[in-house]
Structure formats: C-alpha cells, structure tokens
Design brief:
Elements lengths: L23 H10 L14 E2 L11 H8 L9 H14 L3 E5 L2 H12 L5 E4 L4 H9 L3 E4 L20 H11 L4 E7 L12 H14 L3 E4 L3 H11 L8 H10 L3 E5 L10 E5 L2 H14 L10 H13 L3 H20 L12 E5 H4 L9 H13 L1 E2 L1 E3 L1 H4 L1 E2 L5 E2 L5 E5 L7 H16 L7 E5 L5 H4 L1 E4 L2
Parallel strand pairs: 1-10, 3-4, 3-5, 5-6, 6-7
Antiparallel strand pairs: 2-8, 7-8, 9-14, 11-14, 12-13, 15-16
This protein binds pyridoxal-5'-phosphate (PLP).
Length: 460
C-alpha cells in the first residue's frame, strides 16, 4: 500500500454542529461566573471540549439509519436481537444484560458479588468501579505494574496488572475472599495505557488456577487491540476484532460502557459465561434497569451500539483514532509540555506540577492549567490531581494527590486535524505565559466529589 505522512480523517461530514467562538475577554468573564471551575461552564461557552471521551462520540450515518429502523417492542424486539448478537460475537459469552451505562452493569455485578470482607483486585479500578465495590462493603485493590509509575519510561504496556502482586494477594487474602479480578482495558485511570495479551493471559491463568472470576472492563477494548496489534509480538497479522475476541475469551465476565468504544452517546452491558451468575444478575437487572431484552436501553440505543461495535474495529478508524491522540501528545511534548508518555489511546495527560514548578501543590497547579487552557483558547479539560483526589488531614491541611495531571480526553470522530493544530497553538501560549500563571484556592466545596462543583479564586 502507498504510504503518506498525512493520515486523513476516514470520514466526511454530513451534518455539522456550530462551534461558538469567543474572545479572551468574554472567556475571562465566563470563567469568573463559573467560579474558575470548567465543569460549571455552559458547553456553548467552550470552543474545544476535551472534558471527556464518554458519550461524546459522533455517530455515523449508518448508526442514525439503524436508529430510524429500531424496534421499540417491550419484549423480544429485533433491535435486542441485533444488540445481543453483536455482543455475543465480540465476547463469546452467552448471557448479555443490557444496561443504561457502564456503572449500572457494575452495580449489578459488584453489588451481587461484593459485600463485607470481600476483595476485588484490578490493574486500576475506574472511579465508578471502585465506588460500586466499596458501596457494597467490599475492598478494591489496585496493582498496576511498576512501569506505570514512571512517566517517561516508554514501556509499551503500562496498563498491565502486576501478576506477581496478584499471586501475593491471592496467597495473603485467600482465593475464596477474592470476588473478582478486573482487568481494565485500556487502563483509563492509569492514563489510557494498554494492557498486553500476554498480561491478560497470565492474569487469566492465575484466576483459573484459584477458581477466581476474571472480569474484563472492556470500555476501550478496540483501542487496546490497536496497541496490541502495533506493539505486541505475534499480532501484526491479526485483525483488531480477533484480538479483542481473543482477550474476551480469556475472561469469565465482561463489563462495558458503550459510551466509549461502542461509539454511542448512552448505553452499556454486562456479559457473562456462568448460567448461575447470569440468573442472579438478571434478577437485579429486572428490578433496577428493565426487562431482559432492553434493560436500561431503548431499541434505538441498542441499534446504535450494534452498529458502533462493528465500526469501531474498522482499521482506518482505529488508525485515525490512535494517531490523532498521539499527534496531539507528541506535538505538545515537542513544545516542552511535560506529558505522560507514551501517549495513551483516548487522552493526553499533562503533568501540571512539572509545568508550573512555582505553583505549590496546595495552590492546585492542575486547576491553574485547566483555567489557562480555557482562558487562552476556550479549551475545556479536567484536573486529575489534588482537586479530584486531595484529602485533608485533621488540621485541614491538604494531603495532595500523587500527581497533579490535567486530562485532555478526545471525543471520537468529533474534531478534525485543524482543531488539534489549534490546541497545539494554544499550548504555545501556555508555555510562553507559564511563569506568570498563578495558583488557585478553593472558596467553597461540597463534602464528596468536590471537583465537579467546587468554587475557586485565583491567588495573586
Ligand atoms: C466510563 C467507564 C466506566 C463507567 O461507565 P459509565 O458509562 O460512565 O457509567 C467504567 N469503567 C471504565 C474504565 C470507564 O472508562
């Protein structure tokens, strides 16, 4: 095949949504009214929205066409059949439970398996995963590999689970107290880094040996398959879909938020092998989500997921997807912006504590960058650091998070190359003004999940 250095978006635009442009003066006013917390901005005040890749995908004309053909029957709808067979095809698991999003599948599975004295072990639990486990009374233990902690190591599979640690925990806690081992692919909380097939195979073998349930959190399994294809020996000849299928074949259960790699705005599912587990979870599904052939979804949603799960494995889509994320990361890295490396699948993470060494951690360097990105370029991003994870000691002194990162999550099929080039240019201004950037203090905060609603003020 002929190769070009420009990788084009493998789609053309049929329907457009205006982006509202604004001046720096307008944005300064918007930011002040939002108490310097971008979660409190209106979306129309934002030029480029990198808050999340969840539920923000652009759907294809095929997905919209499928939506028009959806069957909204209460039971046994043809849309359900299409949804069920798309998921059975991917996971190889016979039981499919449709849920309104990922966390609903998590609540059902972990609510059933969890409880006091139980443990779950993961490469890294996503925040809703941890919350559902802890809400049940169980404990969630994270065991990412050591390489994941080194921001500059170019180790290709920083999303791996530490298998030695897993063995140790199994020996220490006793297999019967471990309700499940969860491999999250890609590892969202760990920077969108992939896990290798070798790692999944080893984790699966440990689980099998001890009779522990192996659960795949498959939110970004197509993006993970792309990395395996590119970086793991023995997979260049395999299709992306067959790589994802092979990974599912190693697991006993699969939880997925369709808002990620199923390319839809809402949806999720739980897939299971065991008849007994499926029967118990189906009870909970009917009580809290809906009847078995729609759960938390309408026929339209199920149609869109069925088509999305096909489209996401298209080689030109995945190549565009991962290369455009890498493009942003590598270009701002060249400008001297400290980023988590290698660049993950769905987001670029900037190390704000390193970017702003003059801003002390209790003045939230991550929040400073989030505000600068908005002020200078209308870019909305999210602080993943001491605002999100910081705690207070008995004297109300801040216990900072391990790192102060800012996440730029890239919606799927939404932005073009010139949008990304614009973001790179905004970072040039960020670098030029970095010594004049000051920190922030919190003026109001709620008791839980403060990053969503807290109010801030600049420290001058
Ligand atoms: C988004 C996400 C979830 C939760 O899914 P929702 O659809 O937001 O409820 C679970 N795990 C991972 C890895 C995720 O990224």
């Amino acid at each position: 095949m002929e190769t070009f250095k420009t990788i084009i978006e493998p789609f053309r635009i049929k329907s457009v949504e205006p982006v509202h442009l604004s001046t720096p003066e307008q944005r300064a006013g918007y930011l002040e009214s939002a108490h310097y917390n971008p979660f409190l901005l209106k979306s129309e005040q934002v030029i480029i929205d990198f808050l999340t890749d969840s539920g923000t995908s652009a759907m294809s004309s095929r997905q919209w066409a499928a939506i028009m053909q959806a069957d909204e029957s209460y039971a046994g709808a043809s849309s359900w059949e299409r949804f069920e067979s798309a998921i059975q095809d991917l996971t190889g698991m016979p039981h499919v439970l449709p849920t309104h999003q990922g966390r609903a599948a998590e609540r059902i599975l972990y609510g059933h398996l969890g409880g006091k004295g139980k443990y779950f072990i993961s490469n890294t639990h996503f925040d809703t995963t941890r919350a559902n486990i802890e809400y049940s009374g169980a404990n969630a233990i994270d065991i990412p590999v050591q390489e994941a902690l080194d921001m500059d190591s170019s180790y290709p599979f920083k999303g791996n689970m530490d298998v030695q640690q897993l063995e140790k925990h199994v020996a220490g806690l006793g297999a019967k107290n471990i309700s499940g081992v969860i491999l999250t692919v890609t590892n969202n909380t760990g920077g969108g880094q992939p896990a290798s097939m070798k790692n999944a195979r080893e984790v699966s073998a440990v689980c099998r040996k001890h009779g522990i349930l192996f659960i795949l959190d498959a939110c970004r399994i197509a993006e993970n398959a792309y990395f395996i294809h590119e970086k793991e020996a023995g997979y260049t000849g395999s299709s992306f879909k067959s790589i994802a299928q092979e990974m599912c074949s190693l697991a006993d259960a699969c939880v997925m938020s369709a808002k990620k790699d199923a390319l839809v705005n809402m949806g999720g599912f739980l897939a299971l092998r065991s008849n007994e587990l499926a029967a118990a979870c189906t009870q909970l599904l009917i009580i809290t989500e809906g009847y078995t052939t729609y759960g938390g979804l309408s026929g339209r949603d199920m149609e869109a997921v069925a088509v999305g799960l096909e489209e996401v494995f298209d080689p030109s889509y995945l190549k565009y997807r991962i290369t455009s994320t890498t493009y942003l990361g590598e270009h701002i890295r060249k400008l001297g912006v400290p980023v988590v490396f290698p660049i993950g699948g769905h987001a670029v993470y900037v190390n704000a504590r390193m970017l702003y060494p003059h801003i002390p951690v209790h003045e939230y360097p991550g929040q400073a960058l989030v505000c600068e990105l908005y002020r200078k370029g209308g870019i909305r991003s999210v602080e993943v650091g001491s605002v999100m994870f910081g705690k207070y000691d008995a004297d109300k002194k801040l216990i900072p998070a391990a790192m102060d990162l800012v996440r730029l999550a890239i919606p799927r099929r939404v932005y073009t190359q010139s949008h990304i080039d614009y973001v790179v240019e905004v970072f040039e201004k960020i670098i030029a003004g970095k010594n004049n950037t000051s920190g922030y203090k919190i003026t109001w905060e709620p008791e839980f999940l403060r990053h969503f609603t807290a109010h801030f003020e600049p420290v001058h």
